[in-house]
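Course assignment 3, question 2. Fill in each field.
Student: A.L.
Task: Predict the tertiary structure for the chain below.
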Amino acid sequence: MVLAARIALYAFAAVIGACVFSFGNVLVYRVPRGIDFVLGRSACPSCGHELAARDLVPVFSWLALRGKCRYCGSPIPARYTAVELAGAACGVVSVVVWGFAPSALVGFAFLFMLAVIALIDADTKTIPNGLVIAVAVIGLAGLVWPVADATLVDRAIGVVAVSVPLFILAVVTGGFGGGDVKLMAAVGLVLGWRLTVLAFFVGVVAGGVFAVWLLVRKRVKGSDTIAFGPFLCGGAAVAVLCGEPLIAGYLSLFGLM
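Answer field:
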């Protein structure tokens, strides 16, 4: 009976996660274009036809329609469904990591905002200030329902631990944007300085590997720039979900734990 209840709760978390990340697709499309994402009705970007409720069921509508618009037959990007599936996974993972507690909602909200920011930055190479503020608000909620083992002092240091050096690098080299700087300041408020440093390290390594791969495949030139926000967001996700074990494992290699 207990097992059945837990499975039902995990299934509920997956459904909610998919629905919330489906709304994330709306944000990713509308926010950079300045379109109202609260009152506006969803419509096919190809033909402009308003979508009915049956067209908006996460994952299942895309499968039922075989990846095409019901009204004009235009392909529906598979990325939308991939995002919804990622949302379902984040819903379940949030419950697994933080339990059936308010912290799970805070952690899920953090993962949601990281996903939205990463996708917008990948598409436009910009990180909207409003979304960074949303991450900071999540950080304030984390003071009450923490998602990381960080004191108030840790969080205060986290705000500047990465963002200030990143700002200096941005001014000196121009290799980072202002959105990256502000994002890491907000992430620091959520995670504290230890996990924020880890998030940045993971992001730099992942971004560096990706950049090298692009150069080897001749997808970009040495003078081209890539969006770094998705890698910072990925690093932050890794840090909040499994950062402490990673740090403990690293320190144990040197006999420090």
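Instructor remarks: The CA atoms of residues 50 and 189 lie 40 Å apart. The chain has ten helices and no strands.
Grade: pending
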